[in-house]
Amino acid sequence: MIDDDDTDLEAENLKLKKQIEEVQVENAKLQCENNRLFDENRFLTRINEAFADENDDLRKSLNRYLRIRLPKAIHKQTDLEQLAKRQKRIKTKKSERYEEESEEERSGSNNNDEYDEKEARGY
Q1: CB-based contact 94:113 (threshold 8 Å)
Q2: How far from 120 is each of 31, 41, 123, CA to CA, in Å?
Q3: What is the maximum alpha-carbon separation in the chain?
Q4: Does residue 122 come out as left (phi exceeding 0), alpha (psi in the -120 to 50 range) or beta?
Q5: What residues form DSSP beta bridges with 97?
Q6: pLDDT band for position 123 (50/70/90)?
Q7: What is the rounded distance in angstroms from the CA atom of residue 11 to the CA atom of residue 3?
Q8: E strand or H helix at 96, and its extent?
Q9: Contact by Cβ (8 Å): 63, 56
Q10: Which spans of this chain does the record mark as coiled coil (predicted)?
């Protein structure tokens, strides 16, 4: 009976030692991963600090330009430049017409042209 208890305890002891070894191996893997992530975090922190410094410098230079106000004349000039652009033209058989003309104007002017031609023939 004591021998049975001893063998059961030895088997349990071996099982627990295997579990301890597995946990230690897992712990070592996690420790390596933790160290790698720590190094990566330190590296990214340095990069972030460098970009933060550059961002601060850019904001300072931008603030210098925020104080500058453009005269209203410049804004009006850009509006006038847009209005001064040529209208797009469409070429037809008889003459050039502006794209913005309505269909009624086109058909009315065509009828007038035909009427003028009839009068010129002397009906």
Answers
A1: yes
A2: 103, 91, 8
A3: 141
A4: left
A5: 90
A6: very low
A7: 12
A8: strand 96-98
A9: no
A10: 6-40
